[in-house]
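Incident log, structure service

09:12 report received: a user says their structure output differs between two submissions of the same chain.
09:20 pulled the input from the user's history:
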Amino acid sequence: MTSPSTKSDATLDPMLPNVRMVARRDFLVAGAAVAAGACMTAPHALAETAKPPVRPTASVTDQDREYMHLALEQMRRAGVVDKTGGPFGAVVVLDGKILATAGNSVMRDHDPSAHAEVNAMREACRKMGAPHIDNAVLYSSCEPCPMCYSTAYWARVGKIFYAASWTDYADLFDDSNIANDMRFPYEQRQVALQQIMRPDAQKVWEEFRKLPDPARY
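09:34 re-ran on a clean worker, output below:
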């Protein structure tokens, strides 16, 4: 697949100097409280896990900026032009080739999970014929929300570049509020969580463990 055009877009260039890169594990460190909250069981929390070493920030190349331009174009198309959802766009690249580009389509698809990053990773995984896109690079117009980061984690994305920060649009979308909510014990969260029928679920897990070829991902 050919590389995207190097032609700059004056309406998008002001965002590019603010582009930031985070490795998948580094992003997890930055959101350690989010991850801890997601694993918390009321009323007891799991012990804090050791933090992995912080990697030095890699330099941003012209090629990285070209891919981010594509993500920003998808961002504008989704939120301003086609109005399929919020202004979010994403591009997935593997070994220098674009696997997928996508914008947010929450409103068009009536799907709360149809974020740009999720849409792009779904398409990329379909093309690869697997639930993983090991070491792929995700270029996102905005800092990934907890759901999008989790999807990248499960997909084994190796690196995430993003342009706008949560604080740039906190008055419009509540990504940071979700992260904050996940820090609370279950009984204090916005969406109520209550455990029932655990023994029945455990029986299914025991069946699954005995399968000769259980699905693992």
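09:41 both user submissions now match this output. Likely a transient worker issue. Closing.
09:42 reviewer note: Confidence is low (pLDDT under 50) at residues 1-15, 24-47. The two ends are 28 Å apart (CA to CA).
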